[in-house]
Each structure stands twice: as structure tokens, then as C-alpha cells.
Amino acid sequence: MDAKAFELSLEQQFQLQCLQKEFQDLERDQVIDYLVETMQQIMARDNLIRDLMKNELF
Q1: Rounded CA gap, 38 and 25, in Å?
Q2: What is the pTM of this model?
Q3: For residue 51, what pLDDT is reported?
Q4: Can you give the pLDDT at residue 1?
Q5: Residue 23 in contact with residue 31, Cβ under 8 Å?
Q6: How far apart are CA 55 and CA 8, in angstroms?
């Protein structure tokens, strides 16, 4: 796999900078809640991708 596939686009880098600024104003518990919610969404996405790949292979 091409190493560039793991690099963030300029738009993604900008989005990260915006999030970083937003998080500076949040309380610790708010940041933890956001992190947990984000991880849950990532796991659900991974499950969806895995299911789609499984259905495509068989």
C-alpha cells in the first residue's frame, strides 16, 4: 500500500486545527465524551466496512 494513502489532505489538516482550537475551550469531561463518541463511530464504520467486504467476497 502506498504510504501517501495515510497522509491527511489539506482539508483534513485544517479540520484538525479547527477541532484543536475548539477543544481548548472545553472542559476535560466534555473532551472525553467527544473522544468516546468518536471512537464508537469509528468502530461502527469499521464494522460496516468489514460487513460490506465480507458480502462482496462471497
Answers
A1: 18
A2: 0.69
A3: 92
A4: 67
A5: yes
A6: 29
Give every CB contact of residue 41 below 8 A, 6+ residues apart in sequence: none
Q: How far apart are CA 52 and CA 35, in angstroms?
A: 26
pLDDT one-digit tens code per residue, 4-54 = 888 999 999 999 999 999 999 999 999 999 999 999 999 999 999 999 998
Distance CA 15, CA 27 (A): 20
The H helix count followed by the E strand count for the chain is 2, 0
34 and 26 in contact (C-beta within 8 Å)?
yes
Query: Is the Cβ–Cβ distance between 27 and 35 less than 8 Å?
Result: no
